Amino acid sequence: MKCIRPKYMNDFKCDGTACGSRCCKGWRVMVDGKTYNKYSHINNNADREDILSKLLKSDDDRFFVKMNDDLSCPFLDADYLCKIQKRHGEDYLTDICHSYPRVTYKIGDIFEQSLTLTCPVAARLILLSTEPIEFEEVEVDDIRGTFNWTDKINQSVESSIELQMSAIAILQNKNLALDERLIKLCSLLRDETEANDLNLNFDSVEHAKMMTEIFSKMYNANMNEHKKSELQTIYMSYHKTILARLMEYYTHIFENYLVNEFFMRCYPFAFGGGVWKNCKIFITGFKAMEFAIILTAISKNGFVSADEFLNMIDAINEKLDHNRGGMQTIIDTV
Fold this sequence. Notes:
- The chain is of the alpha/beta class.
- It folds into two domains: 9-99, no CATH class; 153-333, no CATH class.
- 51% of the residues lie in helices and 10% in strands.
- It is built from 13 helices and eight strands.
- It has helices spanning 16-19, 33-40, 45-52, 83-88, 95-99, 120-127, 157-171, 178-189, 205-218, 225-264, 274-299, 306-320, 326-333, and strands spanning 2-6, 30-31, 55-57, 63-65, 102-107, 110-115, 135-139, 146-148.
- Helix 10 (225-264) packs across helix 11 (274-299).
């Protein structure tokens, strides 16, 4: 089957030693039915019972890995490799462990595959590249752990992918400033019959207020109105100067983040409500990340290193993914 993917997929290699196998900690890992059946039929009785004893059955008859007290996976070995994979091979990994950090959508008879930025190794590979993200079509066998997105679109597969790629071309248009690219993206994805109800004046007080509200909710800050007003004043006083300096050094990081998020989450079909709703969610989510980066830079005398930038993106993505509530905050805001 045909798979559309960024070319960086050819360069990615999982390296648990580079991140301490962070993907094996703090997750709720479901064991899919096929994998559970494999575990149940392992010939070695001691090995089989050892694996099954580390699984929990939920009220809806699904099985999950029972994490250690420190939230690490009980199958994580001292060398940052999976004990199950070492004993039985890659085919014995759960769907989620087999696929992560790859994210694959199936649209009709076409796959779209990319990497999530919640993986530090993938994030450095993608975000620090000074070359634009390029895409390729390859032939693949059936892929495990896919999200079937066919019913999420209300147009042909061909026109849906064409729309995605047209949006990505806008996000990679280096003749435009990033905010100009976002405004042009709105022109592509907003139907003339829909209200232009997204504030595109990103330098306005109203924008600062919205970002402050999102920031407060995402981080459960419970800021009072005085604290919110102070934060808005600080932001409005410094954001233009700081953002200009960040763009001078890190435009490629901002651009790669936008492009990867758009493709990896399968925008503009990621959420219900149509492509314009998805456009608003996408832009608001990016601006929330940008807002956090600017606040961090303000707290560090006006600038952040590349590593600090990546750490901030990582923190934001932790809120947007893994049911931390951040994405729901964005959706509720727009």
